[in-house]
Write a structure and sequence with these properties.
The protein is built from four helices and four strands. It has 163 residues and is mainly α. The chain has one domain.
């Protein structure tokens, strides 16, 4: 009976009566964990940047669609616009505040101006129809297009301001 009990005990318990990890085993386990965490960190950063880029594309599309809806309604003369505006909104706030059509009906094109995920602000670069296509300064007339004011470079090598 004594032999059976001794054979079922772990070698460590038989040696000194205590169970646990040695310092060497603990150091090896921590080293392996650090290596795995170090390998995963760049992938996590790329995933975060991809998410911000996707959000930037969505926000630009949302604003540009609102500008297009405003222009379509202005072209059908649903509301009055300035003759020099070519039917484009005077600023982005007009898309949020909306315009009055058919007497007293208020039509809004955006709930709020989206945040630029690259700058963290609601401040977008704007171009009017009179501006050059690659201009970074807004003439102040009417909003024909929007772009990010971020000077950063995307994962594909393009500039965010060129999107």
């Amino acid at each position: 009976m004594k032999r059976i009990l001794q054979s079922t005990r772990s070698p460590r318990l038989a040696r000194n009566g205590q169970a646990g990890m040695t310092l060497l085993e603990l150091v090896i386990a921590c080293t392996i964990l650090l290596i795995l965490a170090g390998a995963a960190e760049p992938m996590i950063r790329v995933t975060i940047v991809r998410g911000r880029e996707a959000e930037l594309r969505r926000n630009l599309r949302e604003i540009r669609n609102a500008i297009d809806r405003y222009k379509d309604m202005a072209d059908t003369m649903a509301f009055r616009t300035e003759l020099t505006s070519n039917g484009y909104p005077p600023d982005l706030d007009t898309l949020v505040k909306g315009v009055t059509v058919a007497g007293n009906k208020q039509v809004r094109f955006l709930r709020r101006i989206p945040v630029d995920p690259m700058t963290g602000q609601r401040d977008w670069g704007m171009r009017s129809i009179q501006d050059e296509p690659d201009s970074n300064s807004w003439g102040g007339g009417n909003v024909f297009d929007v772009f990010s004011k971020s000077q950063g470079t995307a994962l594909d090598g393009s500039k965010y301001s060129d999107w």
